[in-house]
Amino acid sequence: MKTRFVVVLVLFNVAALAAGFVYFSQYWQRQVVQDQESAGAELQAWQSRAKDQTAAASNPTVIYKTNAFNWSQVETTDYRQYIANLRGIGCPEATIKDLILTDVMRLYAQRRGQYYHNGRDFKFWETDEKRKLKEPQMEERERQLAAIDKELPAVIRELLGVNYEREVNKYFVDADEDDRRLGFLSDDKRSQLLALREQFEGKRERAIFDAQDGKLAAADMDKVRQIEQEQDAALSTLLTPQEKETYELSESPSADKLRKQLIGFNPTETEFRALFQKQKDIDSAYEFADPNDEAVREAKTADEKAMLDSFKSQLPVDRVAQLDLSQNPEYQNLCVLSERYDLPDGTSQALLDMRKTAEEEKQILLSKKDVAPEQVDVALKAIEAETEKEARAALGDQAFAQYATGAAWIRSLGTN
């Protein structure tokens, strides 16, 4: 029995070994086939890479080593070549503009500086008047500075094709003003428009720069008019009629002028449009007239008054009164102050009324002949103190502190 069991067990093991041998033989055979296929694919991939490397070797890629770069390879005193070199190494245009602006402005600052001292060596024991400019030196300085002020914008325009004053303002005022004013245009149109503006501004500046003594002769004026007509045609091609009108309302000097003149009036869009075209026509008519000519100034003032009178005839009574009030410089300053400090509506008018009342009280007091001089002085000081108190209450401490620096009328109340 035991012998039979052993025999059975041996036969079972033999069968298991045989089955295992068959299974693993097939498994390893499959593995060999897979390995051969993988090796074939890898061989093909290697051969393909080898071909690519051979082709690349025939057209080698130049690798620029930045640690071998030296700024002397780029920088030169010839600004046109300097700009070309910068572009040659792939320097971004914005960076090129910054580099050239900084360098040119530093150069002109050095030129300016030489006209601010009289050439006398500094000696610490000498008083200040020893180093003041002599009259001939001051006259020469004014001539040289005027020449620099004319030359620098022209140089920047020639080198970079941009408006000098606008570019400088981006560092000190607002770099995104154009984007805000021209936000009604697509990015592509805005870029094209700004490029057009720079192009025609450059032409206009060169025409004016070439004028003798800065005065435009008839031929110069015709040239500038031609440039403006070309610009208008280019704008009409680029922009739709509505876009062109909005551009002029947003960017033109006439529109900017109105935005300053109408402080305190708070024009509606319709009112502003009604005035704009008339102001633009007047500005165009006097564009090349001599602003220092008294007759010219009087004629333009008369035309602008007629423009406002015509405009008033179309307004209701309350708007006419508001427009008249807005032409008062003091009222305009108060409106700016009120806006800055977010003061309640009517504050500007309240200050004007306060001043009128206080000055009338002073005149009434001064007209009384039966009041002793010392009593008048005391009363005037009281009027001054009370007015200052009321003005401070109306404006608040911060706004009043700023207003008081220019409000000589308050201090004048206390004097006879």
Describe the structure in your own words.
The protein is mostly helical and 416 residues long. Among the domains are: 56 residues; 76 residues, no CATH class; 66 residues. Helix content is 74%, strand content 0%.
State the low-pLDDT regions, or none. 1-25, 53-67
Mean pLDDT over the full residue set: 81
Please describe the biggest sheet, giving its number of strands, its sense, and whether it closes into a barrel. none
What is the global morphology? globular
Strand content range: under 5%
Radius of gyration: 41 Å
Topology:
Elements: H1 2-58, H2 79-88, H3 93-113, H4 135-160, H5 164-172, H6 177-181, H7 187-209, H8 218-238, H9 241-251, H10 253-261, H11 269-285, H12 294-312, H13 317-326, H14 329-340, H15 347-367, H16 373-395, H17 397-404, H18 408-412
Protein traits:
416 residues, mainly alpha, disordered N terminus
At a glance:
This protein has 416 residues and is mainly α.
